[in-house]
Design a protein that fits this description.
Layout: H1 3-11, H2 23-29, E1 36-40, H3 46-53, E2 57-62, H4 65-77, E3 83-86, E4 99-105, H5 111-123, E5 125-136, H6 140-143, H7 157-163, E6 170-184, E7 187-200, H8 203-211
Parallel strand pairs: 1-2, 1-4, 2-3, 4-5
Antiparallel strand pairs: 5-7, 6-7
Helix pairs in contact: 1-4
C-alpha cells in the first residue's frame, strides 16, 4: 500500500491496530536495558510509545502523516515523548551505529526493497545493540490467518537472515516462525509470523575476536 492508502486506512478507524505493543517485541525487549531505540514503520505508534514508557529514547519513523498524528495524540495521552519523523522507509537513511534497539514490525515490501530497508536498519544498530524484525510469514497465506494476501511482499525468517548476510559484527541469534493467536468471530485462530533477532557484537567482543 502507498502513503495515501495508509492515510485513508488510518483516517477510517479510531485505531487500526491495538494500542498495546506487539507481543513478540515485548518478549524480546523487556529484559534489555533502556537506551536509544528506532522504530521503523511506526504507524499509530503503539510500539514506540510502549518503549518510551519503559525509559527508551525513541525515534519513530513512518510515511503516513495521519498515522503519526494519531501517534502523537496517543503519546501525549500516555505522558511520554517520542521523536516522530515523517519519511518513507524506501529512502530513509537512519544514523549509522546509533541505536541500541532497531525494530521493523510488519513492514512488507517487495524483496529488493525489503532487503535495502533491512540492511539500513542493521547499519543503524550500535555495538551491543539489537535488531528485531517481525512480519507476516509467507506460510501465513495458506496456513495462517489474516495479514497481506500478496505473496510477493511476505517473507520467511530465512529471507531476513539472507538480507543480513555479510554485515560485519552482526549475528543472528533467533530466526523462527511463531504463532500469534487472533480472536475472530469463529473463535481463536493462529496467524504465522516470521521473527528474526540479531545482535551487533559489543566493542569488547569485537576486540576479543580480532585478538583470537
Amino acid at each position: 500500500m502507498d502513503r495515501e492508502a495508509w492515510n485513508q486506512r488510518y483516517a477510517d478507524a479510531e485505531l487500526v491496530w491495538s494500542a498495546e505493543a506487539n507481543r513478540f517485541l515485548v518478549e524480546a525487549v523487556t529484559a534489555l536495558p533502556p537506551g536509544r531505540a528506532l522504530d521503523l514503520g511506526a504507524g499509530e505508534g503503539r510500539n514506540a510509545i510502549w518503549l518510551a514508557e519503559r525509559g527508551w529514547h525513541v525515534t519513530a519513523v513512518d510515511f503516513s502523516d495521519i498515522g503519526l498524528q494519531k501517534a502523537r495524540r496517543l503519546a501525549e495521552a500516555r505522558g511520554v515523548e517520542v521523536d516522530w519523523i515523517e519519511a518513507n522507509l524506501r529512502g530513509y537513511q537512519p544514523e549509522r551505529a546509533a541505536f541500541d534497539l532497531v525494530v521493523l514490525v510488519y513492514i512488507h515490501l517487495p524483496g529488493d526493497e525489503r532487503r535495502a530497508v533491512v540492511r539500513r536498519a542493521a547499519d543503524a544498530v550500535a555495538a551491543g545493540g539489537t535488531l528485531l524484525v517481525i512480519g507476516h510469514d509467507r506460510t501465513n497465506l495458506q496456513e495462517g490467518y489474516g495479514g497481506p494476501q500478496d505473496p510477493t511482499i511476505l517473507f520467511s525468517p530465512d529471507d531476513v537472515t539472507d538480507d543480513l548476510a555479510g554485515i560485519d559484527e552482526l549475528r543472528v541469534v533467533r530466526a523462527d516462525r511463531v504463532m500469534r493467536p487472533v480472536m475472530t468471530a469463529d473463535g481463536e485462530r493462529n496467524a504465522i509470523d516470521a521473527l528474526v533477532r540479531a545482535e551487533r557484537r559489543s566493542a569488547d567482543e569485537g576486540a576479543q575476536r580480532s585478538a583470537s
